[in-house]
Design a protein that fits this description.
The chain is an alpha+beta fold. It has 7 helices and 12 strands. Keywords: WD repeat.
């Protein structure tokens, strides 16, 4: 126990030094000066030994000269190399997503035991709820639509997805459904305004509508003679428009799935489509 506490104290003092090095090389110069002054006053930096073996409080400048091989961004490099190593040992929910603030299977302190999926038996679930049926979550009926939020941010300007979606969203992320229905590659995917339907456009010239709750095929929209390049849903959630490489735009009613209009005029393939502001781009 004493050796463990000594080891933790040594790592803590080294961490203070690395944080000071990182801050000193960045824009937070005042924060670096304050930290260096405080850790020296409280003797929190790694201690030095003289020629007789006696310990003395270390100073920041002496440590910089002693550890010249430690770059200012040494702490950042350590953090960046921990994520791939942990990914090979315990895969995360979202492969390739690295964050120091993750939770669940995105947590950097996760272990194989903590990420083990537990399957509840019916008797254990009944005992947990004292015989009552499980209650639906508070947000049942009005779940947050991240897809619509991402699309709105993309229309208004540039953004980073990690700034938009909290890392806690990925805590229990897993595959919901894997659907095979198209005859060829799927080029575009979009949700309706409620998030309860998914629209897919494919190389087989078809637009398919799927239910998000069970993945069931609801309808197939036909009419295009080439691959579907882009789709857009009206703001009233009553129509869907699809652009294709056959130089046309087709509009369907989402209530009856009946065709409403065929828009022609482009001389080449349609690459993007937006409903509401009447903006269509072509080649």
């Amino acid at each position: 126990m004493a050796s463990d506490s000594t080891h933790i104290a040594q790592l803590t003092s080294e961490l203070y030094f690395l944080i000071a090095r990182f801050l000193e090389a960045g824009p937070c110069q005042k924060a670096a000066e304050t930290l260096i002054r405080e850790v020296e006053e409280k003797e929190l930096l790694p201690r030095r030994l003289d020629w007789t073996g006696q310990e003395h409080p270390g100073t920041y400048k002496n440590l910089v000269m002693l550890y010249r091989h430690v770059a200012p961004d040494h702490l950042l490099q350590v953090c960046s190399r921990v994520c791939p190593l942990l990914e090979r040992e315990v895969p995360a929910s979202v492969p390739g997503l690295t964050s120091l603030l993750g939770a669940g299977r995105q947590n950097l302190l996760r272990t194989s035991k903590s990420c083990k999926h537990v399957v509840w038996k019916g008797s254990a679930l009944a005992a947990l709820h004292c015989g009552r049926p499980p209650e639906p979550p508070i947000i049942y009926g009005s779940p947050p639509n991240i897809v619509e939020t991402s699309y709105s941010r993309r229309l208004n300007g540039s953004y980073r997805l990690r700034q938009l979606v909290p890392t806690a969203v990925y805590q229990h992320m897993k595959m919901h459904k894997r659907i095979l229905g198209h005859l060829s590659s799927v080029y575009c995917v979009t949700f309706d305004r409620t998030g309860r339907r998914i629209f897919t456009g494919s190389d087989d010239c078809l637009v398919k509508i799927w239910g998000t709750d069970d993945g069931r095929l609801l309808a197939t929209l036909r009419g295009h003679a080439a691959e579907i390049s882009d789709m857009a849903v009206s703001y009233e959630n009553t129509m869907i428009a699809a652009g294709s490489c056959d130089k046309t735009i087709r509009v369907w009613c989402l209530q009856t799935c009946a065709p409403l209009a065929v828009l022609e005029g482009h001389a080449a393939s349609i690459t993007s489509l937006q409903v509401g502001r009447v903006q269509v781009c072509g080649i």
